[in-house]
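STRUCTURE:
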């Protein structure tokens, strides 16, 4: 628990999620904000044309786009998601993410 508090100590007070992480050329980068037994909050930045290949997770996941646009495929169905929109990826359903333009997102994993 102390380790988690040390990781988020610099986030005391109000902050802008999109400013917690920068884009990196040809990369997907992430920054974990909170890790608890009940779930995690992580901010990601995807450069254009980058993505995460199809996979499953044992928990429900919520993606909220902070900037840009992405194609998120859930159970073989593609969805266009843009700035200010969110989508729920149900547990045990295959999903993948692809940057249409560079984008930043908040990933909320609920265990």
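SEQUENCE:
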């Amino acid at each position: 628990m102390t380790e988690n508090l040390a990781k988020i100590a610099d986030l005391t007070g109000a902050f802008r999620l999109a400013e917690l992480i920068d884009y990196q050329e040809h990369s997907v980068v992430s920054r974990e904000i909170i890790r608890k037994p009940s779930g995690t909050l992580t901010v990601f930045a995807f450069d254009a044309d980058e993505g995460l290949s199809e996979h499953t997770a044992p928990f429900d996941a919520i993606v909220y786009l902070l900037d840009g646009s992405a194609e998120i495929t859930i159970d073989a169905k593609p969805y266009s998601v843009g700035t200010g929109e969110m989508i729920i990826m149900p547990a045990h359903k295959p999903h993948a993410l692809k940057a249409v333009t560079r984008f930043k997102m908040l990933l909320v994993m609920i265990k």
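REMARK: Residues 2-110 form a domain with the Jelly Rolls fold (CATH 2.60.120.10).
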